[in-house]
Every structure is written in structure tokens, then in C-alpha cells.
Amino acid sequence: MHDESMHHDFDDAACGLLTCSSSGQILRINGTLRHWLGIPGESTVSSLFDVLTPASLLFFEMQLRPLLALGRTVDGAFINLRHRDGSQLPVVLNASQPQGSPRMAMAMIVVREREQYEASLRQSRADAEAALAAMAASAHGQKMQAVGQMAAGVAHEFNNLLAVIRGNISFAQQGVTDALSSEQRILEDLESAMTATDRASAIVRQLLAFTGRQVVRRSVVNLNSVVDDSRHLVVTALGRDVTWQTRLAHDLWPVFAPKDQLQHILTNLVLNARDAIRARGEPGLITVTTSNVNGTNDHGDSVRLLVEDTGLGMPDDVRARAFDPFFTTKPVGQGMGLGLSMVYGTIDALGGRTTIDSSAGQGTRITITLPRATT
């Protein structure tokens, strides 16, 4: 049954097939080649003389047979078959004869079919090149869009800081002319303006660090001081509908990190929490907690910073992409989608971990864990 199947495969192949002896005697020829030659199935085909035109037979004997006798393979030789009615059929020949074997195997494809095949290959290649060009153009467009989003986000960040600066300077100016305002209040307003200016500079340093063009300098830092130093600036930006509270651990262990980056991270998380609360449309609460975490066999001692809000929360698909660069659910110009990715990347570079616990309508909890500094 297996031999019969192989016979049908040979006889019904789309290309012309034959085997012959080293002397040119035909041993086997398939139905496709018989059809091309106009030879009925019951007729005998005895030698290559019955298959090839005289010129092609001479070419085969003088050029191709010596190569085959040496065990070489013939690929893509153009020859002409001799039809029974005297016409010629140009074909492309592939042939081989294993060394020591008395038999040669030949496969042929009609030239016009080969030309169609090659034309198809050329078209496929052209289509592939066009597709690659389109992909490259699309990738370039996406990069430019990402750069545009980043620029819009940076502008938004600076606008927020400038608003704080202008607001506090305005308060200070009013205080100068207001006899009821105390000197201490004016100093606090000016200090807030100065802090916002420092934050703007910190954003520039953060972007430079993100692109690898800024040397990050670490120091021993207490996260409680990071929270305290950020308090006034953050509270100023929260508004009346958002309440801020802190739960800071006593005797908190220090961490080894750049303080300005930690302040930027905390501010970013708190402002994100504020936006989530406002999106829910009702007053809400932001809680910032610090604590020590005793080490285990797998991890050493660490310090935890937790930022929780009662905001809108994240559905599963948003939470899964929250750390992706340039991913944002905010309108264009209101966020560049780098905030959480910068948080994740910075904390990871410091040897820490960042996790998100959130669900739609249930608020969000972001936990940052940093290794305890050894002093």
C-alpha cells in the first residue's frame, strides 16, 4: 500500500520527473512529463533522445553529464523538451546522481511556470518590503507620538509647579500690603515657592537620569523626612476636597537613595491619588504610611512607604499596564504616562520593589519597599 501511494505521488507530481541510467536509458517517467511530451501512457520512452531536442541532448552530454558523474548537482539548467508533434517546450532542469550510483534523477519545471513563480517571489518580496517600510513608518510615528506625549506631560508638570510658585508669590505680595498678615506667613509662602522651584529642577534631573545622562548621587535618607519635607507643597496642591494624613513609624530605619528622587516619587504618587479621588467625584482621603519590615531568610531588613487613596481605583486591564512607559488614562496634555514607570524604574534601580493593589471603585494602594541602609 505504501509503494502504491509513492507511485501515485511520483506519477501525479506537478513537475516532470524521470530516472535514467548513466547511459541515458529511461527507467521511469511520470505522467506529468508524458503529458508535456504528448506521449500516451502505454507508449514506451526508451532514452533521453526521446525526451530532449538534439541541441539540448548535446548540451546535456557535453556539459551536464560530466558534472553528474562527479557527484555534482545540476540546478537551474535551461533545456528544451521535444514534443511528439515536433514542437519544443523550454524547461528548467534539476538533476543529481549520487557518487557510485548508476542512476540519475531529474526534475523539470516549465519555464513559463518558473517565470510565474519567480514573478510571484518578486511580488512577495516587494510586498514584504512595503510592509516593512509601513511598519518602520508606523514605529517612527509611534515614537514621535510618544515624544509628543512626553513633551506635553513635561509641560503639564511644569505648569503645575509654576502655578504653585505664582500662587505663593501672589500670597506673599498680598501679605506685604495686608497689615493683618504675619511675617511668618509671608516667609512660608515664599518658602513654598522656592520648594516648587526646586521640584522643577528635580524633574529635569529625573528626566536626565531616566535617559542615562545624569549621575545619581545617593545618601542616607529617612523616609519620614521625605514625607515631612513634601508635606506643604503637596497639601497646597490637593485642594479642599482631598484630605491628607500620615502614619509615620517612630525609629524608622534609613535607606540609601537620592532624596530628591524620593520626594519626586512621593509627590507623583500623591498627585495621582488626588486625581483618582477627583475622578470619583466626591471628597476623599490620602494616607501615607511608613514602617519597618523585618527581614527573612530570602530578604534583608527593609523600609516600606505606602500611599493609599479612596479614589476611583483601577480596573484589571489598567492595573496590568500601570507601569508601562507612556501609558496613561488621562487626556492629552494632562499626563505623559511616565510617572509610574519612573517610580518603578527608580525603585528597582535602588534594589527595591513597587507593587499596586487596586480594583475599580475600591481605591488604590501603592507599596514601595527599599532595603535598609547599613550605616
TrEMBL record:
Domain Histidine kinase, first and last residues per copy: 153-374
Tell me which UniProt keywords the record has, alphabetically: Phosphoprotein
Give, as one word, the top-level EC class: transferase
Question: What's the superkingdom here?
Answer: Bacteria
Known EC number:
2.7.13.3
Q: Which Gene3D superfamilies match?
A: 1.10.287.130, Histidine kinase-like ATPase, C-terminal domain
Q: Which reaction does it catalyse?
A: ATP + protein L-histidine = ADP + protein N-phospho-L-histidine
InterPro entries noted in UniProt: HATPase_C_sf, HATPase_dom, His_kinase_dom, HisK_dim/P_dom, HisK_dim/P_sf, PAS-like_dom_sf, Sig_transdc_His_kin-like_C
Q: Which GO terms describe its molecular function?
A: phosphorelay sensor kinase activity
Q: Mind telling me what this protein is named?
A: histidine kinase
What species is this protein from?
Answer: Gemmatimonas phototrophica
